[in-house]
């Protein structure tokens, strides 16, 4: 008998529940072309080569070889511009972008900060708002120089010795989207 009362109570609860049907509308626009960037509209941007001496004395987490750099945005459409940086980062250090070149990858990672060296750009989105001086420049042929600060982050040591010498390379994907 208890099962019958329980089943009746469940049915009553289901019958008295309300279902609200709502419509979600997704709007968008396909534009003919987006911002031009880099040199000669080259989609691959290589930042200046950063050279540092082997880093035995630097503490883990120290920034080394920091340099100011930039890339250029020109002829952007007349919208807010969302610049997203996507990179593989070192476990436990969201600012350290994976260095894919051995042997230096055991102790050094790259970092990518905004031009004032105050905020990491790894896996973040920066907005260039419509109507600002930056957006006006980016929407012209003159262009906007997007400021960056790049360098190395020391992520480890090998037997308390200097960082192994060798080339370095990290890859950051740059996604640019536009919104009203």
How do the helices and strands line up, and which of them pair or pack?
Layout: H1 2-16, E1 36-37, E2 63-74, E3 80-87, E4 89-90, E5 93-97, E6 108-114, E7 124-128, H2 133-138, E8 144-154, E9 172-179
Antiparallel strand pairs: 1-2, 2-8, 3-7, 3-9, 4-5, 6-8
Radius of gyration: 25 Å
Reading the helices and strands in chain order gives HEEEEEEEHEE
First-last Cα distance: 62 Å
Strand count: 9
Given the C-alpha coordinates, what overall shape results?
A: globular
Mean pLDDT over all positions = 80
Q: What structural class results from the helix and strand content?
A: mainly beta
Question: Helix tally?
Answer: 2
> Assembly state here?
single chain
Low-confidence segments = none
Write structural notes for this entry.
A hairpin with a 2-residue loop joins strand 4 (89-90) and strand 5. The protein is mainly β and 180 residues long. The model has no long low-confidence stretch (mean pLDDT 80). The termini are far apart. Strands 1-2-8-6 form a four-stranded antiparallel β-sheet. It has a three-stranded antiparallel β-sheet with strand order 7-3-9, with no helix packed on it. Strands 4-5 form a two-stranded antiparallel ribbon. It is globular. It has two helices and nine strands; from the N terminus they run αβββββββαββ.
Descriptive keywords:
single chain, 180 residues, mainly beta, four-stranded antiparallel sheet, three-stranded antiparallel sheet, 9 strands, 12% helix
């Amino acid at each position: 008998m208890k099962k019958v009362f329980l089943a009746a109570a469940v049915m009553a609860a289901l019958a008295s529940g309300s279902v609200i049907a709502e419509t979600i509308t997704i709007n968008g626009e396909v534009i003919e072309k987006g911002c031009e960037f880099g040199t000669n509209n080259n989609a691959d941007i290589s930042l200046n080569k950063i050279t540092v001496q082997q880093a035995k004395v630097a503490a883990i987490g120290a920034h080394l070889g920091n340099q100011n750099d930039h890339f250029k945005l020109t002829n952007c459409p007349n919208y807010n511009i969302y610049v997203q940086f996507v990179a593989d980062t070192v476990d436990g250090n969201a600012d350290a972008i994976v260095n894919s070149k051995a042997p230096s990858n055991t102790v050094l990672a790259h970092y990518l900060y905004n031009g004032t060296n105050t905020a990491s750009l790894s896996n973040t989105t920066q907005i260039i708002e419509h109507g600002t001086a930056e957006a006006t420049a980016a929407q012209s042929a003159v262009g906007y120089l997007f400021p960056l600060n790049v360098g190395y982050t020391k992520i480890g040591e090998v037997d308390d010795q200097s960082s192994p010498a060798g080339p370095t390379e990290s890859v950051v994907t740059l996604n640019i989207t536009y919104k009203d």
